[in-house]
Structures are given as structure tokens and as C-alpha cells.
Amino acid sequence: MSYGLWLSTAGMQINDYRQSVMSNNLANANTVGFKHDLAVFTERAVESVASGRHRFSHDVLDGMTGGVFVTPTVQTFDQGDLDKTGSHLDVAIVGDGFLTVADGDETKYTRDGRLAINTEGELVLAAGEGRLRVLNEQGQPIRADLQDGGEVRITSNGQVLQDGDTLGRMDIVSFEDNSRLVKQGSNLYTNHGGEQRPSTSELRVGYLEQSTANPMNGLAKMIETSRAYELNANLISLQDQTIGQAVTSVGRIG
After folding, report:
1. What are phi and psi of 13, to 5 degrees?
2. Residues 204, 91: contact at Cβ < 8 Å?
3. Least reliable range by pLDDT among 30-44, 57-71, 85-99, 104-118
């Protein structure tokens, strides 16, 4: 197969992948606490270099690129802008840190600070339909007294109060290596072996952290990626025509 066809095919594949990553970012431009992803690529070495076998060497091709490879998607953890809501159950973490929540028997982490009280009096994520319970430093759900009816408030150090009584302190943690966190959907992360420690970041009550996905930049990059995909597709068509001409015309014996 033509060397150029391989390169153009790889170009189409990586731009298709890049488009899917950016589409997900754009879809979450208004998701509270969302951290955008980056599609990262690396140059592929030519075969003689990659394999170390000189029988694959070629004087011309060895001076060219071997194409590109997709590397694992990089998660960004930049600080998002803060939006003031005034709600005493909205919190934003300023700095490195995550709220600890229980999803059934699993422990997960999030930057989504929209909190609520469910029908059982538990402090939960508002986006989780009452099932994602916010945990205290002992790993237990934080419960309010629904019979009392007193207003539940959160302080800047994570204490949850009801009528001045302490219900518990939210478990806000940070990690030595955030790359160990894996997105699980619903704006949640799971920890895959990262060292965990209490976070010393500031908690802003009455604020929410906005998504780090920039819709204008994202749209511009999607258009750029679409054009790059189309260009590679056109190159494949041109190379196919060239090969056809070589077979039907150049190779014809007069």
C-alpha cells in the first residue's frame, strides 16, 4: 500500500478521536465542576527505528515521519470560575480537592458542589437524584433531623450545621497524583491507587465552580479538526487516483 495512504488514514483516525474528545468537552460546557480533557498524540517512529531491524530501512522513507499515535487522554484539573448562587447548600472548592460521596457501596469523588437534603435527611448531591450521599471524615453519610425542621448550613471549613448543632464535617480530600483519578460519568471520579490526604483548600459557600470547557475555543477547535479530517480524506482520494493512473497508464505496455 502507498506510504501516503497510511499517513492520511492515521490523520483521519486521530482527528476523529480528537473530535469526539472535544465534543464531550463542549457538551459539558455548563456542567458544574467539569474538567475538560485533552486529546494528545505522539509521533510514530519509522519502522527501521521502531523495530531496530535494518532490513526495513529505506534511504528516502527513513527521513520522513512514521505518522502519529494516539496517547491516553489527559485530564485537566484547572480551577474553574466561581459563580455566586447565594444558596447555603452550594459549595465550591478553591484549589485542589474533591468531595467524597458514596454511590451504593462505592466511594467516588466530585467537584460538583450542588448539595441537597434527600427524603431520608441525608446530605446528597443534587444531581444524583438523592442516591449520591456526601460522606463525613469517618466515611459515614451526614444526616439532618427532618423532624426538627431546622435549616442546614455549611461552613467554610466543611462543617455541616443544623440549628447550631454539628452534624459532621464533609470529607474533602486531595490526591498526590490526580492522573490516578478516572472519570466514571455523572461528573464522578474513582481513585485507582492514588495516595489520598485531607485537602487544605478553601471552601466557598454560596458559590459553584463552573466548567473549564470554553465553548468558543472548543467550537473553533472542532471546526479546525473537521477541516483537517476532510483534508486527509481528500489526500486519500488523490493518492487513490494516482495509484489508479499508475496501474492503468504508466504500467501499460505500448
Report:
1. -65, -45
2. yes
3. 57-71
Using DSSP, state whether 250 is helix, strand or coil.
helix
> What is the distance between the alpha carbons of residues 185 and 29, in angstroms, rounded to a whole number?
15
> Do the strands 98-103 and 172-175 form a parallel or antiparallel pair, or are they unpaired?
antiparallel
Rounded to whole angstroms, how far apart are CA atoms 124 and 122? 6
DSSP character for 17? H
Q: Residue 133, class by beta-carbon neighbours within 10 Å (0-12 exposed, 13-18 middle, 19+ buried)?
A: buried
Q: Please, is 109 exposed, middle or buried when counting C-beta atoms within 10 Å of its C-beta (0-12, 13-18, 19+)?
A: buried
CA–CA distances in Å: residue 127 to residues 79, 220, 253: 21, 30, 72
CA dihedral (60, 62, 64, 68) in degrees, to 10, reads 150
Q: What residue type is assigned to position 2 of the chain?
A: S
Please name every residue paired with 202 in a beta bridge, in sequence order, or none if there are none.
Answer: 94
d(CA 31, CA 24): 11
Give the SS3 label for residue 108. strand
Contact 185, 61 (CB under 8 A): no
pLDDT in tens, 11-70: 888 899 999 999 999 999 999 999 999 998 887 777 666 666 666 666 666 666 667 778
Burial of residue 161, with CB atoms counted within 10 A of its CB: 0-12 exposed, 13-18 middle, 19 or more buried = middle
How big is the chain by its Cα radius of gyration, in Å?
26
Cell numbers given for 251: 504500467
In the prediction, which pLDDT does 59 show? 67
